[in-house]
Design a protein that fits this description.
single chain; mainly alpha
């Protein structure tokens, strides 16, 4: 039976809420602790990377736990709800650092809350994405649901991108530290409400009845799925590029583009970019899909992104007299990012069917746990690169001293190079890996779906 409109909307709302939370953490936790609270940039980079190393063990284990769960509410929804409630609390605490803390105490607080945030996000995120193969069969139904979820997630990310600094300034009365605390509380509440709708209205429609495997078997199954590993590596490289830019763009506007009202330019740019990202997922991708297969759109998106970064670098060194010029590279980068987000999730979902045919076991939870891990790993790597850039370029957190003028020439040159050339290198590496290793064309996906239907029919006979 096909998904109802109510189920689709409820699932999409969950994506809006969880990506609002993720984007707030991925894009602003470094800025909050380094630029506002005064924590050393390198110390923050180490914290963010250490948390990701911990997730290397935490995320796949959570995938195993989800796979083994059996309750009358299913195996996904209980963990989805528990993880959401815990993560919402930790999110607020992470952006509500006590003013009395400083030095090593503040570093310890940042480390503990961020690691706990990653753990609780994993509890929620893995079952959320693992529901896609359990809801759908391969082909158009899965692709359409994935596109919807990723489009909704893009809306959540875009809302944070557009609204954060404007709301922070308004809620804090110009005090960024206070503003972030109250904004995080609002986001946490919306997160719980949206995921609550998902849990109430979504049901598992097709879960393969299989014997619960051991952790060792699950890891072996993942390693043996060469297509899943190819997509995982591609996602890491793409997201490293995206998150390096998202971590540094606020510093670009604050210290390079400059001006007392830098956050107004930053908000305007992000509003344009967020709208472009949403349109790319909801309009551009479906439109291109009528003329091209998913793999062709993947390559088109890469070309757009690389072109956008090159134009941004040229503009940064030639003419930044008006923010309108930055809309040109912004359109290309944000549109490409939106479509790549949808495509990588579709490709990863397809590898679940591939693994079932190849390994005779449907490991959706483990495979999608890798998506959670690699996205967080990419954000950790990007934050480390951004932290090193901030330290080497000596971009000061003394906002009063720099708000009315651009930073030193050598500092902004380093900032410009890091936020453009590093992402280009990551994207080129991603397209090379994908081109060499990915085999699941549209025709192959249909063949896998037909093979699975035949196997299930024979097993039920």
């Amino acid at each position: 039976m096909k998904l109802s409109q109510k189920e689709k909307i409820s699932y999409g709302l969950g994506a809006v809420g969880k990506d609002m939370v993720y984007m707030l953490s991925a894009s602003y936790v470094l800025y909050y602790y380094q630029d506002i609270c005064g924590v050393n940039a390198i110390a923050m980079g180490i914290i963010l990377m250490a948390a990701r190393v911990f997730d290397a063990f935490n995320d796949p284990i959570m995938g195993v736990i989800v796979a083994k769960t059996k309750t009358r509410f299913g195996k996904f929804r209980p963990w989805l709800l528990i993880g959401t409630l815990l993560n919402a609390v930790i999110l607020f605490l992470m952006f509500a650092a006590p003013p009395s803390l400083d030095g090593s105490g503040l570093v310890a607080y940042a480390a503990v809350t961020y690691i706990l945030w990653g753990m609780t996000y994993t509890i929620m995120d893995i079952p959320y994405w693992s529901m896609i193969p359990a809801f759908t069969e391969g082909g158009k139904e899965r692709e359409n649901l994935t596109t919807l979820a990723r489009s909704a997630a893009g809306v959540g990310s875009a809302l944070i991108t557009i609204l954060t600094m404007m709301c922070v300034m308004m809620l804090g009365g110009g005090n960024e530290r206070t503003g972030f605390k109250w904004f995080a509380l609002i986001v946490a509440i919306l997160f719980v409400l949206f995921i609550g709708c998902t849990c109430l209205n979504i049901r598992e429609k097709s879960t393969v009845d299989m014997q619960s495997p051991s952790a060792g078997q699950m890891f072996r199954a993942l390693i043996q799925n060469d297509q899943a590993m190819t997509v995982v590596v591609t996602i890491v490289l793409i997201n490293c590029a995206v998150y390096i830019t998202s971590n540094l763009v606020i510093y670009f506007f604050k210290y390079d583009f400059g001006g007392d009202a830098w956050y107004s330019s930053y908000t305007l740019f992000n509003t344009f970019g967020g709208a472009t990202q949403i349109l790319s997922m909801m309009l551009f991708f479906p439109l291109l899909r009528k003329f091209f297969n998913a793999i062709r759109i993947f390559y088109i998106s890469f070309c757009m992104a690389v072109t956008g970064y090159i134009i941004l670098l040229v503009l940064a060194f030639t003419d930044m007299s008006t923010i309108l010029l930055l809309f040109i590279p912004g359109f290309l980068i944000f549109a490409a990012s939106g479509m790549l987000t949808v495509l990588t999730t579709i490709f990863l979902a397809n590898t679940v069917d591939y693994g079932e045919v190849k390994n005779n076991r449907r490991d959706e939870s483990v495979i999608f746990s890798m998506q959670t891990f690699v996205v967080k790993l990419a954000s950790g790597i990007a934050a480390m690169v951004a932290s090193i850039c901030l330290a080497v370029c000596n971009l000061s957190s003394d906002t009063d001293a720099v708000s009315s003028t651009a930073a030193a020439a050598s500092s902004v040159v380093g900032l410009r190079m890091t936020m453009t050339l590093f992402p280009v290198a990551g994207l080129l590496a991603a397209v090379w890996v994908f081109h060499k290793k990915y085999l699941l064309t549209d025709e192959k996906v249909e063949e896998l779906a037909a093979e699975i239907r035949m196997r299930r029919g024979n097993s039920n006979a």
